[in-house]
Predict the structure.
Amino acid sequence: MKRFPGLFLLGLLAAGSLQAASIEGHLQDARAALTAGDYQAALQRLDEAERALGFASPAILLLRIKAQQVPLEAGRYRYLDLRAQRGNCAIYMHEFGINHPADAISPEISRLCATLTQYPREALEVVRANLQAGRFQTALEDLAALERFGGAWSEAQALLKIRALEQWRQAAPGEEAEQQMRHAARDYLDRVAAGQGQPSAAALAYVRALAGER
């Protein structure tokens, strides 16, 4: 019976060693994916490392910031990418600012986080920028996320969704794109008729034309 505590402790040590090896394996895979330019695969591996560890360690955060910066620097980012990166930087800087000396902060990470001030802060600003660049799919992803967040109906957001769906219809004509665009246009007009929003005459004419009204 006296041997049981010792065996239990050995089991815990073995489990800890296996967990550490698993986490390090995920980090190595993330570094390899990042070197290969596959930031999405890198982020997936880092999520797995965080789940295995139970929290985001400084090593995980450092790699996550590097990976999340890839779409930003390429100019192909979503609002959710920006929000995630700002959160990563805030956690990283707070962790090192509170629990470590200032020289523990990676100069590279400090530089990357400092660049976030040059990007839009508001979600709809990011959506507009993507629509201006013709990236309607990215815009629609962000708009869908904003709808999931909930909140009051926004005339500006609804109009951006209509513009994104119109770009989709123009890029890939088809029944699905046409139906979604017309549905969004009619919903916009119904809400305006019910007293929501204060659309301009130009916006009303634009949406009515898309909805098939005169």
Q: What stands out?
A: The chain has two domains: 15-119, 131-214.
